Amino acid sequence: MKILLTLLLLNGTLELSPISTLTANLLMKVDQLPDPSLTAQFDNRKKVVKVRWKNIHPVSSYVLQRSRDNNTWKDLIQMNGNVLTRNAYISWEDAQTGSGKNYYRLKMYTSKTTYKYSSSIMVIPGGKTHSWIMYPVPVREVVNLQYNGTAPIEGVIAIFIQSITGKTYHRLRLASNTRSIQIPVSNLGRGTYDIRVLVHDEVMWNQRFIK
Fold first, then answer.
1. What DSSP assignment string belongs to 56-70?
2. Using one digit for the tens of pLDDT, what is the confidence trace for 71-115?
3. Where on the phi/psi map is residue 169: left (φ > 0), alpha (ψ -120 to 50), or beta?
4. Is 199 in contact with 154 (CB distance < 8 Å)?
5. pLDDT tens digits for 160-170?
6. Secondary structure class of 153 (helix, strand, coil)
7. Cα 48 to Cα 44: distance, rounded to the nearest angstrom
8. Residue 66: CB atoms within 10 Å
9. Is 31 helix (H, G, I), strand (E, B) or coil?
């Protein structure tokens, strides 16, 4: 976010005027915004991605964005947060997704010119019966996995996080009814890693991520 200071020429001296108290308060508010709990899940029956988030204070409006590469973003819809109930969940369905990775994020405005982006999340639409959502993207201190497949998981879930050279950093075993997983990865340095989900020693889902 860029902060512009007004240049004033007074008595031949170039000075910087401080930002107003109102502007400073707005910047402080946007930096302290709580997590909107953004999630996205592919509905295999309706062939849409269902996006959901919480209406948080003091956001006045939201712009939902989608990307194919987590770099170039397209605005999908804008919603006025002031006319919605605070802390209520907002839902929207995206029927124009492409195959492969789809990323979503929110552009959250606290004024007409002051905004903050949420963390982006990734979902892979398609007919896969065993699929997972991973977020946030890029991964930070914790990687979250959410199962959104249509088939039951029939066996213990094994999860591995490895470097691209094959070194294993995390190995987890979870019950077959587990649907949401949080894995602390603060011990991982900056780099590229692979996460794999196995059932009965068969890879059901795998994804490469950057930290």
1. -TT--EEEEEEESSS
2. 999 999 999 988 888 888 899 999 988 777 788 999 999 988 899
3. alpha
4. yes
5. 999 878 899 99
6. coil
7. 7
8. 21
9. helix
The alpha carbon of 94 is separated from its chain's Cα centroid by a whole number of angstroms, namely 16
**pLDDT score, position 31:** 63
Residue 200: which domain range? 139-211
CA 207 – CA 97 distance, rounded (Å): 19
Same domain as 144, residue 101: no
Dist. CA 121–CA 118, nearest whole Å: 9
| Token output for 12 | 């031949």
Q: In this structure, is residue 65 part of a structural domain?
A: yes
Peptide bond into 58 cis (omega under 30): yes
Residue 32's CB: how many other CB atoms inside 10 A? 9
Given the structure tokens 């930070």, which residue do they identify?
A: 140
Assigned domain for 133 exists: no
Q: Cα torsion for 93, 97, 102, 108, to the nearest 10°?
A: -40
164 and 120 in a common domain: no
Least confident interval from 6-15, 52-61, 115-124: 6-15
Structure tokens at 114: 């002051």
Dihedral sign for Cα atoms in the order 57, 61, 66, 67: negative
Same domain, 83 and 186: no
